Amino acid sequence: MINDLTISQGGVATVTPPRSVLAPLKPIGFGSSWRECLSSYLQRLADVYCVTPNQLCRAIFTTLLSFVQSHQVDRIWQHSNFNAMGPIPRKWSDFLGQQTSVRGLDKLTLLPLEGLACSRSLTVDNRQWCPLCFEEDEASGTPYGRLLWEIESVKACPIHEVRLISECGCTMGDALPARKRKFLPNLCWICGRNLNHHSIATLHSASSVELRHARLIADLLGCWLFEDDQERPIKSGVPTFLGNAVLNHPDRHAAGLARTLGVSKGSLHGWMTGINVPAFPRMVSIADTCEASLVEVLAGEFNGDVVKGDLSIQRSTNSRKKCNWNPRKMNKVANDLLAALRATPPPSLSSIARETGASSRIMRDMHPLLVQAISARWMDWNRARTGERRNDREATMREAAEALALEGVHVTRRQLSKKLEFKLTIFSPEEKAVCKRICEEVNNAFRD
Description:
Layout: E1 6-9, E2 12-15, H1 38-48, H2 53-61, H3 70-73, H4 87-100, H5 131-140, H6 208-221, H7 238-247, H8 254-261, H9 265-273, H10 280-289, H11 294-299, E3 307-308, E4 311-312, H12 327-342, H13 349-356, H14 360-366, H15 368-406, H16 413-419, H17 429-447
Antiparallel strand pairs: 1-2, 3-4
């Protein structure tokens, strides 16, 4: 490479620009939400030299990229992780940047999200596109493949509000010979037809959810995370975001937020503690449900309200809201509570809730004194029943210990456990202490 070569022409000194091995092809849409993906850039770069991307990879990159086997290098640009995160897009973007002298090619992939988002279910296996976007590109400039289309959660074009297409519609009978195929972002790699041949009548309108998710991801690709002069967060802010979302949820606890997001409490606990990271499609759903942007989710900044479905639930300082039941249902619940207060044995509040169809929270708000009396009566009865069970277990252990002592066996906890097999198990520390005390008492009594 020749740099800074001074040449005198007519008494004026000029400096030649830095030379590059490959043509310094500029990426399209750089710095916007509609930026080009790295695989599309490689296809256009190969077209400059009138070769296929496979031939370009074999001719130049095989001897320079030792991290990929030679028989895999020519088709690695078709890999689903080529535009995602990991060592493959990092090394290929760095190498292409060195050979073309074009900076920032890593921004044509999802590498800026590495460490912040999960790579699971991130990019598509088969490419998808918007025919209307290709049609506009041909009218105004060069058609190219968007990085937005490479993300699995994107199913619609946020500009034209139509669903993306993943099939050209050709068959193997329409396939061109391998030597006649041309690999460009706007062409079918099998039949060679232009991918904008789909008419508007054959396109399907996107749903509101698909459009919201596509716009959220488009805003993410155009945010400050994909700029060179911005400092990226060190770690993901998803735990902080979910913690703030719990505080702003009407129920004020993680179980309520888990129900709103449609996940289990265990999954939400793993995300909040940082043990696990939600998959990217789930992260998009979280941002949509909480009416936040993906940048806020990744950075841990919560500025929205938690919503259920399409109805927004405003923040409330009182997590327990009064029930709006009609008087007939309220009277039925009161009669059921009075009957439960006189029942023997006394039922628990959870069993009453299952029978009446009203939640425990509603019953506490409607009849706090009755619920308090029922709970106190059930706790006293349960405490007495627990004491009776404890005395029965202790009597059973003592009877078995005396039977062993009459046989001339030195009573130990192990011997007693074998004797009580299929009748009583001794697992808890409290039961072990009781068993040890009974063994000592029985051994001392029979020794004397």
